[in-house]
């Protein structure tokens, strides 16, 4: 079981409550400072770039305002970590240093940088479909103007259609396509599982575009494949902007009602990336042992809690990645 990010929960509960640092705790023994740190200007986006084998090249990211990160090298195992100018949704680009037919550019998408992001031919196809099968290079160039058009809902629908088109290939490696978030499914570029599907599926031609269309080709195991842009996605349950472990569509929402010297303060903390086989409730040892701190009467503080598994974190909740 993964440990609870107790610091984040503590801070969330203490927001709005008139509690001293002694009651809420501090990471710094020097509690005399009253200076507030400047808000972070970047967010760290982590993920894996692979097309069946680790992608060799660089990663660069644009935020919703069109501000671009510094390009960083993708590691030998396909993983990457980039500091992006803060402000999602983000459009992510992986590219190599080749020219002509050897040049490859892949794209992906992240709403809020809270979950790991995959960059591969499947995520590129989803962005391509969400963009009306138009040039992705042009989309990246004008992301500040186009992110309100290429919405999370369109990306989600297109990603589900990717999973539906390849449902047989995913079933062959024991992955349920109806619960598969291609953007955040955690895998290693080792030729097995999800990566084995990437090995078999080739999608090319995203940069082969004219004014009206792009000449994209689809191959599975070396044979041409007819892509169905209208395929049904009934029963496909995940959401692109709700966090949750890939395939689960689940987050753990904790409602915290704190009473301090007669004053009631309510907070909501939503744990994303929450495994389906982990209890979202007081019976969860990691959650329960941490939450008991607030019901133990420290400094006259008492608290009650409610728990619920949710498909997406609601507005107003403090979102904390379950790590």
Automatic annotation (TrEMBL):
Keywords of the record: Signal
Position of the signal peptide: 1-22
Domain of life: Bacteria
Protein name: Carboxypeptidase regulatory-like domain-containing protein
Organism whose genome encodes this protein: Alkanindiges hydrocarboniclasticus
């Amino acid at each position: 079981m993964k440990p609870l990010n107790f610091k984040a929960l503590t801070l969330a509960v203490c927001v709005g409550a008139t509690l001293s640092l002694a009651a809420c705790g501090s990471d710094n023994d020097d509690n005399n400072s009253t200076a507030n740190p400047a808000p972070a200007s970047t967010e760290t986006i982590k993920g894996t770039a692979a097309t069946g084998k680790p992608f060799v090249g660089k990663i660069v990211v644009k935020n919703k305002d069109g501000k671009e990160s510094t390009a960083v090298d993708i590691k030998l195992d396909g993983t990457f970590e980039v500091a992006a100018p803060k402000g999602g949704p983000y459009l992510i680009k992986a590219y190599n240093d080749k020219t002509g037919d050897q040049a490859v550019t892949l794209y992906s998408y992240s709403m809020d940088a809270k979950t790991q992001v995959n960059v591969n031919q499947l995520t590129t196809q989803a962005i391509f479909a969400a963009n009306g099968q138009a040039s992705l290079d042009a989309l990246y160039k004008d992301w500040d103007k186009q992110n309100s058009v290429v919405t999370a809902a369109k990306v989600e629908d297109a990603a589900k259609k990717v999973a539906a088109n390849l449902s047989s290939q995913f079933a062959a490696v024991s992955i349920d396509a109806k619960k598969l978030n291609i953007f955040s499914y955690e895998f290693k570029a080792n030729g097995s599982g999800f990566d084995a599907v990437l090995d078999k599926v080739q999608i090319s031609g995203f940069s082969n575009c004219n004014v009206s269309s792009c000449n994209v080709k689809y191959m599975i195991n070396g044979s041409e494949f007819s892509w169905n842009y209208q395929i049904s996605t009934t029963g496909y349950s995940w959401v692109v902007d709700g966090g949750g472990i890939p395939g689960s569509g689940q987050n753990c929402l904790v409602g915290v009602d704190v009473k301090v010297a007669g004053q009631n303060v309510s907070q909501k903390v939503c744990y994303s990336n929450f495994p389906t086989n982990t209890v979202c409730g007081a019976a969860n040892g990691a959650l329960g042992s941490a939450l008991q701190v607030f019901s133990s009467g420290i400094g006259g503080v008492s608290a009650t809690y409610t728990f619920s598994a949710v498909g997406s974190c609601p507005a107003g909740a403090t979102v904390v990645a379950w790590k």
